[in-house]
Amino acid sequence: MIVLGIESSCDETAAALVTEDRRILADLVAAQLEDHRPYGGVVPEVAARAHLDRLDKLVGQAMREAGIGFGEIDAVAATGGPGLIGGVIVGVMTGKAIALVHGKPFVAVNHLEGHALTARLTDDTPFPYLLLLVSGGHCQLLVVEGVGRYRRLGSTIDDAAGEAFDKAAKLLGLGYPGGPMIERAARAATSPVMDLPRPMKGRAELNFSFSGLKTALRHKVEELGVLDDVKRANLAAGFQMAVVESLIDRTRRAIAAARESHPALSALVVAGGVAANTALRLELENCARHAGLDFVAPPLRLCTDNAAMIAWAGLERFRLGEQSPLDFAPRPRWPLDEDAPRLIGAGVKA
Ligand code: KG4
Ligand code: ZN
To answer: Which residue among 9, 71, 153, 236 sits deepest, i.e. has the most Cβ atoms within 10 Å of its Cβ?
Structure first.
């Protein structure tokens, strides 16, 4: 089985071809960093136009790299949400058109499910596993019980982890995208790093919060006045350490909770753009080792947004007999655990 995947929900235009025996035949990503850099963040309208410009060509290039024709694919999968709606529409329309013209099934994929199932593409990780999903728009701990079966243990009550990195980088004048910039700046830290609060640390509930940390960082920046490279590096390192410790504290608690409900828990998996952070990966690995769990972190290029994960999630759904109607409507919001009660404020169920 071969599935074509399309991703266009944020600022990466991507196309990939993946096989059922977990081979990636092509995996192309056209980032839009330069389009958005002048604005210091992703501009939805700019992103949608860039997807429209590039997606067709990228799909063609992926097909050539894989050395196959549309007749040889079994299904077309495209991100159907959640994300910036203009971009999602471009991807869904492109996917539907290819499916219609070549008489192939169409599968709309939840972008978060793409991240959630990547560990099965890269490492064949068996269900159930605990997933820490940390990206620019999301920060969640989930037990992945099966395809389409996600039990959320906690999520952020304000900013996502990647969003926090991006905002902190802006405060420090480090530019965009924030995560990699903070990580690079932190590497140059020399003196003791800046001490910043660890949000939610020690709390029993499994939610995250990063806005207080961001405020604390802003106060430090204001207090220090003009930042030289050393101060900037120490602030970046302090911020990174606070985020990592907070993520680890929640994850450690989530492992205990997940083991209670799922004694057969196989692994701790990390996914999403922030999973590219080396300090976080190291600490998560330690955390898993102490708990006697396998640790799975996809290679960096499969942590950030890509289409191989969309092709794979589409393939997992398709081989279970699922496909989407051609009138599928793109979804700006699409929680993974749709049946779960909504988390409002500090995780109070409503
Ligand atoms: O998953 P992703 O590529 O896009 C979304 O679906 O959001 O994640 C992008 C996010 C951005 O906020 C970026 O700053 C963050 O991931 N990120 C990192 C690193 N690389 C990317 N955060 C921390 N450290 C990194 N090395
Ligand atoms: Zn993502």
So the answer is: 9
